[in-house]
Design brief:
The chain is an alpha+beta fold. The protein contains 10 helices and 4 strands; from the N terminus they run H-H-H-H-H-H-H-H-E-H-E-E-H-E. It has a 4-stranded antiparallel beta sheet with strand order 2-3-1-4, covered by helices on one side. A hairpin with a 6-residue loop joins strand 2 and strand 3. Helix 5 runs parallel beside helix 8 and helix 9 packs antiparallel against helix 10.
């Protein structure tokens, strides 16, 4: 058992190392190609870093490096996340931030297209992919996530509207200083990025799962559900097709867990009937997977 746990831990570390490096490189290339070509201001601390760099160049004639500014801005939120989320999650996310900062200063600038709409759309899509692959291994690229995740997971406080408001203020400042065209295209960039992240984030959506199984196999099915640390409600009934006694098990899981749960349930009862429904809103206790 200890050997299995050590192997799983090693595989997890290798996967996170590879994916975080790829994500950081994608972000750096995106910043030095699409974002720079379109003179865009991405959301969050990356956009704030670019705004500071642009102000220093325009008003003081000083060309500031991306890395030190980005790391400095992320430092205080990282400490907040370290205290309230966990050491492993925060350190891996800081690793992504440092790699992104280094790669951004090292990767040469190479504009791919000068069309502002193509820059905004494809730049946003690429940015969303880089964030999404980080979320796949349960780390983040830092920035405002360091604030949003602790508040959401520990106190169930949704901060996304406040973050959106902060991005709007930043874009208003950028638009007033450097022109509204870049600010408006930056909104398209952020919208495209957000849509990709929503699709790729395994914890972004919960779904309702209804499982119909026999009375004899109900215990095994419930045991499989508890393996995912979720609970369920069991309702006894009668199948109208054959008139046999059956059990309806009701549970709510992350959308990213549906495939695994389906496989586990069918191991306990190959004939189980599973129906997955969209969950629009959830109130009450729901198990949130720890990021650490």
């Amino acid at each position: 058992m200890n050997q299995i746990k050590k192997r799983d831990l090693a595989e997890s570390v290798v996967a996170r190392l590879i994916i975080s490096t790829i994500s950081a490189l994608i972000v750096a290339v995106n910043l030095n190609s699409f974002v720079q070509a379109g003179d865009l201001f991405p959301g969050g601390f990356t956009g704030l870093t670019r705004l500071i760099m642009r102000c220093a160049w325009e008003f003081a004639g000083v060309e500031l490096p991306f890395g030190p500014i980005n790391i400095a801005i992320n430092a205080l939120p990282a400490l907040f996340c370290l205290k309230y989320v966990g050491k492993r999650f925060t350190l891996w996310s800081c690793f992504v931030i440092v790699l992104t900062s280094i790669f951004t200063d090292l990767v040469p600038s190479f504009p791919i297209t000068e069309d502002p709409l193509l820059v905004a759309v494809f730049g946003g899509l690429i940015n969303g992919v880089s964030i999404g692959i980080c979320l796949y291994v349960r780390i983040t690229s830092g920035g405002t996530d360091f604030i949003a995740i602790p508040l959401m997971e520990r106190w169930n406080v949704s901060t996304w509207n406040y973050i959106l408001a902060g991005n709007v203020v930043m874009l208003l400042i950028a638009g007033a200083l450097f022109g509204w065209e870049s600010a408006l295209y930056s909104i398209i960039f952020q919208f495209a990025s957000t849509q990709v992240v929503r699709v790729m984030d395994p914890d972004s959506t919960q779904v309702t799962v209804l499982i119909v199984t026999g009375r004899e196999s109900a215990g095994g099915v419930c045991a499989q559900i508890q393996e995912l640390h979720h609970t369920a409600t069991l309702v006894e009934g009668v199948g109208l097709y054959n008139g046999e006694r059956c059990v309806l098990i009701y549970t709510v899981v992350y959308v990213g867990e549906v495939r695994k749960m389906t496989r586990m349930v069918h191991q306990a009862d190959p004939k189980a009937f599973i129906n997955v429904l969209c969950t629009e809103r959830l109130a009450g206790n729901f198990y949130r997977r720890p990021r650490d």
